Every structure is written in structure tokens, then in C-alpha cells.
From TrEMBL:
GO MF term list: phosphatidylglycerol-prolipoprotein diacylglyceryl transferase activity
Matching Pfam families: LGT
Purpose of the protein: Catalyzes the transfer of the diacylglyceryl group from phosphatidylglycerol to the sulfhydryl group of the N-terminal cysteine of a prolipoprotein, the first step in the formation of mature lipoproteins.
A GO cellular-component term linked to this record: plasma membrane
Record-listed a 1,2-diacyl-sn-glycero-3-phospho-(1'-sn-glycerol) binding positions: 131
Name of encoding gene: lgt
Source lineage: Bacteria, Bacillati, Bacillota, Clostridia, Thermoanaerobacterales
Full protein name: Phosphatidylglycerol--prolipoprotein diacylglyceryl transferase
Length: 246
């Protein structure tokens, strides 16, 4: 692992923070290009994207802290240390969706579906880079295993599934799928819904290999949330699909 890239004077530059910044930059550039492709003012989208980034990080950190509250209750000074890792994707969604809806209604200039699609394309492009940061940081690790590609993380030296790298691979595949369906889109908002479905399916299965907080005897909290989000997204997709013309 390589949690600290280098020291700048007495300041430690964390790999997770750097890769998170790269993910945000890639997402912003991709969202800007998607906005231009749709004939939407890129400045409007960039303002929204930067707002969503800040709000998403805050929301994802809050949810992560709540999930891991026993640890943070004993270490409250670490709550704001987002550069050390620890963000919840679903926490970002909870904050970003209503915020994007409110912003899209500003002046009645844009449909929420277009804003959601642009945001989803940008998020899908940046996500793999964030997971590379998780691997370098040593967080979001997997369960112990004997597979040949297992990675021993410094905190205990036990060979584990490199679930961060699995996430990078799935993230690239999901981004490719979003680009594929973008050329076959039937209604505004379809890409955002598909992204939620793809992410939920990936997260549900990867949690069989990842160390995650339990939500009961059989599912992790991430799997329970994935089932909920995927179920709602599929219902919305079915309803919108039936009402959309090819």
C-alpha cells in the first residue's frame, strides 16, 4: 500500500486525496463534454457539478460515519479526515439527487432527466480512479482468501481479496455500458437510472468478498441498500420505458 505519496515540507500528501481529486476532475471534464453533446450550457453544468461534488462528499462522509459510529464515537477527531478514506456512495446519492432536482428547476431551463444523465456519466467516468485511491490507501479491503492474486494489507498482513481492484474493473465496465446505452437512449434520465442499477448489482455481489457492516444474518448493509436502490430504479425504468417512444 502507499497511503502517503510524498511529503511537501511537513505536509503529507495522501494518495486517497490525490486520486479522489483526479476522479472529480475526470468527472467534471466528462460531464462538461456530455453537456456540450446535448446542447446544454457547460458552465451551468460545471457549476452544478462542483456543487454536487461538495455536497456529495459531505453526504457520503456523514453516512459513512453513521455506519461506522462505534469507531468514530471513540475517535471523533477523525470524522472530518476524508483524505484518509471512508465515503459512502449511497450517502452521496441521497444528497445529490434532491439537490440536482432543485438546481434543474432553477429558472425551468433544464429537465431533471438531462441533469441526472450528465451527472451519471461524469460519476461513472470518475469512479474507477476513486477506487484506485482506496487500494493505495488500504481501505475498503476484502475478506481473507487464498486466491493467487490476494493482497496482504499492512494492518494485519493477512492475504485478502483486493476488492478495490475488483471495483476498478467493474467501474470501467459500467462506464462502458453507460456509453453503449447513451447511443440508444429513449428518454431523459435513462442513463442515471441504469447507472444506479448497474452500481447496485455490482455492489451487491462484491460485498460477498468485501468486509462490510452487516444488516442482518444474511446481508451486509451495502447489499440491503443495493437491493432497495436497484428495486426502485428498475420500477422507474420500467414505467418510463413503457411511456417512451423508440
Amino acid at each position: 500500500m502507499w497511503p502517503i505519496l510524498f511529503y511537501l515540507g511537513g505536509f503529507a500528501v495522501h494518495s486517497y486525496g490525490v486520486l479522489l481529486a483526479v476522479a472529480v476532475l475526470v468527472g467534471l471534464i466528462t460531464a462538461e463534454r456530455e453537456a456540450k453533446r446535448r446542447g446544454i450550457d457547460p458552465d451551468f453544468v460545471l457549476n452544478l457539478a462542483m456543487l454536487l461534488v461538495v455536497a456529495g462528499i459531505i453526504g457520503s462522509r456523514i453516512v459513512y460515519v453513521l455506519v461506522e459510529w462505534p469507531y468514530f464515537a471513540a475517535h471523533p477527531q477523525e470524522i472530518p479526515r476524508v483524505w484518509d478514506g471512508g465515503l459512502s456512495f449511497y450517502g452521496a446519492v441521497i444528497v445529490a439527487v434532491p439537490l440536482a432536482w432543485l438546481y434543474s428547476r432553477k429558472g425551468g431551463l433544464l429537465r431533471f432527466g438531462d441533469v441526472a444523465d450528465i451527472t451519471a456519466v461524469g460519476a461513472a467516468a470518475g469512479y474507477p480512479f476513486a477506487r484506485i485511491g482506496c487500494f493505495l490507501n488500504g481501505c475498503c479491503y476484502g475478506k481473507p482468501t487464498t486466491v493467487p492474486w490476494a493482497v496482504a494489507f499492512p494492518f494485519d498482513g493477512v492475504p485478502r481479496h483486493p476488492t478495490q481492484l475488483y471495483a476498478v474493473l467493474f467501474g470501467v465496465l459500467i462506464f462502458g455500458a453507460i456509453l453503449y446505452f447513451r447511443r440508444r437512449q429513449r428518454f431523459a434520465g435513462q442513463l442515471a437510472i441504469l447507472y444506479l442499477v448497474f452500481y447496485s448489482v455490482y455492489r451487491f455481489f462484491i460485498d460477498f468478498f468485501r468486509v462490510s457492516p452487516p444488516a442482518g444474518a444474511y446481508l451486509t448493509l451495502g447489499q440491503a441498500m443495493s437491493l432497495l436502490v436497484a428495486g426502485v430504479a428498475l420500477v422507474v425504468l420500467a414505467v418510463r420505458w413503457r411511456g417512451a417512444r423508440p
